[in-house]
C-alpha cells in the first residue's frame, strides 16, 4: 500500500463517529496491519470503509460476519484490546 493510501486509511480508522471504533481500528492499524498480507490489508480497508452502524456489530460480536474474506480480519479485530488511547 502506498503512502497516500495508507494516510487515507489512517484517517478512515481514526475519525469515526464511534470512539470505540476509533480506538480499535487505530490500534489495529498501528500494531497488526503491517503484519497482514496485501490481500488482507485490502480486506481491512474494505471494513474501514463500512459505516459505523454496520461495522460495530461485527467487531463487538453481536453479529456474525457472513463474508468469508472478512471473517478473519473481524476475528482479529475482536481480539484487539484497547488499553490506552493512541
TrEMBL record:
GO terms for cellular component: cytoplasm. Pfam families: Sdh5 (PF03937). GO terms for biological process: succinate metabolic process. Its main location: cytoplasm. SUPFAM superfamilies: YgfY-like (SSF109910). Keywords: Chaperone, Cytoplasm. It is found in: Cytoplasm. Belongs to the SdhE FAD assembly factor family. This is FAD assembly factor SdhE. It comes from Azospira restricta.
Amino acid at each position: 500500500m502506498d503512502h497516500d493510501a495508507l494516510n487515507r486509511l489512517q484517517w478512515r480508522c481514526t475519525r469515526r463517529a464511534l470512539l470505540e471504533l476509533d480506538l480499535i481500528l487505530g490500534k489495529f492499524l498501528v500494531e497488526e496491519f503491517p503484519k497482514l498480507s496485501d490481500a488482507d490489508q485490502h480486506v481491512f480497508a474494505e471494513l474501514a470503509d463500512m459505516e459505523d452502524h454496520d461495522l460495530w456489530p461485527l467487531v463487538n460480536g453481536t453479529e456474525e460476519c457472513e463474508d468469508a474474506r472478512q471473517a478473519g480480519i473481524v476475528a482479529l479485530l475482536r481480539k484487539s484490546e484497547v488499553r490506552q488511547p493512541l
